[in-house]
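Example record for the data management plan.
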Amino acid sequence: MQVIQDVTHYKIISIGKPDEKYFNSIPKNWSIICQDANLGILYYPEAVTINLNRSSEIHISLSAPPHRINGNDTVRIQWKVTQCKDCFKWKPEQLYFNTKNFQIKQILTITRIKNGPLAMFSPIFNGGGFDLIPNDDYRVIIT
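Corresponding structural encoding:
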């Protein structure tokens, strides 16, 4: 067995910390105002008919993992209902996703307790970089 060793020498162009001028254009609050276009929520189904005193399951997951901000990678999702806010009850009241479970579907069970008009469930995001996502883009429609 023959061993061959080849050594390549490279010229070192720079050593040390990069000049601050390269970072001056980055806003100091970048982690708060950064909006990742990959962040989103996936529903199945996206629209459902629920009759009085009946329930339906909505399977929910995230399209991308939440960001780790200040050591926390958890996003909490709560819900606001348009129209007939007292026509429904739902469980759980909030869902939690992080970098380990973002692709695992969680189930939101919605029950109609009063007849009413078409309603939309919109997510309220908290944490994980999801705070700036327009919640109206991710509505569940209930007829």
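Summary line stored alongside the record: The radius of gyration is 23 Å.
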